[in-house]
């Protein structure tokens, strides 16, 4: 049985841990609000660009752009977006479980954003082609470098398609690991409502005749394709990164809140155990005094 001194030491240690987790919870909550606003505010732009691309696709000739057909290569290039730091619950674990469950094996090459992604792929002995460190908060200028590199790899014909594995932010407690095809551009997805909050579930394809207005493209739809499709790919990739960052900060805030609550409950249990031992020690002393007094009489 532990002594009162041991329990006092444990109480002091748990109090220090609770202070740390509480501070981390407050920091994560502040970052979470900014990351969520950034991710949510980017969704209308992604949806509007998608509608314009639907009109472009219908106006252009079939097969007019290489982004709508598979590359000549046999391998698949996969971009994995994870966090740089831990202490965010099962966020990264669930993401890698999604990767393993999707049968992304030796026939795939990988590119990573986030230290946890590169570390996990190294442990799994996957072929890691490149790693891009991107600071938080994420900036579009940094992400454009990644998008241009991915498009160059696809344009050379080295890969038949390009996939992105990321955490899709739904709300603070609901995060869905999602594997999305970035290139070639999925025409069915283009015709539907591309809302990152709804990814992972069946997407209802909307009729383009009622939802997409008629546009006049100059000088021609093909020329507009050349200009807007690379921008569309980079913007889609940036939106996926924003969803991942919002998921990371939300998971860290929830994990630190749970850790703080558990520390408080542990303090209650330790205080109760300490009081019981202290009361037992006082009772024993009283019994010894009473016994000694009766022996002297």
Describe what you observe in this structure.
The protein is of the alpha/beta class and 297 residues long. The chain folds into two domains: 4-24 and 258-296, Helix Hairpins; 27-251, 3-Layer(aba) Sandwich (Pyruvate Kinase, Chain: A, domain 1). Helices cover 60% and strands 14% of the residues. The protein has helices at residues 4-59, 91-101, 115-123, 140-155, 187-191, 208-211, 221-296, and strands at 75-81, 108-113, 127-131, 159-171, 174-183. Helix 1 (4-59) runs antiparallel to helix 7 (221-296). The longest helix is centred in the C-terminal third of the chain and has 76 residues, at 221-296. The chain is elongated, with a radius of gyration of 28 Å.
Principal-axes geometry comes out as elongated
CATH class of the largest domain: Alpha Beta
Helix content: 55-70%
Low-confidence stretches: 199-210
| H/I helix tally | 7
CA gyration radius, whole angstroms? 28 Å
Count structural domains: 2
CATH level-3 fold name of the largest domain? Pyruvate Kinase, Chain: A, domain 1
Distance between the termini: 35 Å
Order of helices and strands: HEHEHEHEEHHH
Name given to the CATH homologous superfamily of the largest domain: ATP synthase, F1 complex, gamma subunit
Portion in strands: 5-15%
The CATH architecture of the largest domain is 3-Layer(aba) Sandwich
Structural class: alpha/beta
Order of strands in the sheet with most strands: 3-2-1-4-5
* DSSP strand count: 5
Question: Average pLDDT value?
Answer: 82
Largest sheet: 5 strands, mixed
């Amino acid at each position: 049985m532990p002594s009162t001194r041991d329990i006092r030491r444990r109480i002091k240690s748990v109090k220090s841990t609770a202070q740390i987790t509480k501070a981390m919870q407050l920091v994560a909550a502040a970052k979470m609000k900014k990351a969520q606003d950034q991710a949510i505010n980017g969704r209308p732009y992604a949806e509007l660009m998608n509608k314009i691309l639907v009109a472009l696709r219908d106006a252009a000739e079939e097969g007019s752009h290489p982004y709508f057909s598979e590359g000549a290569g046999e391998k698949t290039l996969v971009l994995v977006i994870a966090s740089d730091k831990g202490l965010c619950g099962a966020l990264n674990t669930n993401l890698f479980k999604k990767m393993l469950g999707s049968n992304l094996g030796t026939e795939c090459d990988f590119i990573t954003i986030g230290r946890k992604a590169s570390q996990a792929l190294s442990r799994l002995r996957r072929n890691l082609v490149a790693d891009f460190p991107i600071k938080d908060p994420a900036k579009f200028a940094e992400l454009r470098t990644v998008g241009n590199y991915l498009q160059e790899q696809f344009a050379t014909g080295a890969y038949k398609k390009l996939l992105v594995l990321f955490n899709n932010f739904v709300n603070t407690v609901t995060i869905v690991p999602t594997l999305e095809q970035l290139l070639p551009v999925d025409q069915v997805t283009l015709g539907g409502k591309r809302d990152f909050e709804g990814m992972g579930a069946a997407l209802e394809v909307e009729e383009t005749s009622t939802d997409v207005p008629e546009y006049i493209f100059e000088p021609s739809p093909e020329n507009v394709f050349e200009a807007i499709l690379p921008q569309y790919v980079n913007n889609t990739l940036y939106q996926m990164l924003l969803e991942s960052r919002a998921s990371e900060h939300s998971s860290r805030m929830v994990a630190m809140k749970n850790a703080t609550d558990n520390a408080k409950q542990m303090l209650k249990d330790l205080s109760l155990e300490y009081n019981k031992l202290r009361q037992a020690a006082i009772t024993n002393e009283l019994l010894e005094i009473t016994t000694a007094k009766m022996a002297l009489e």
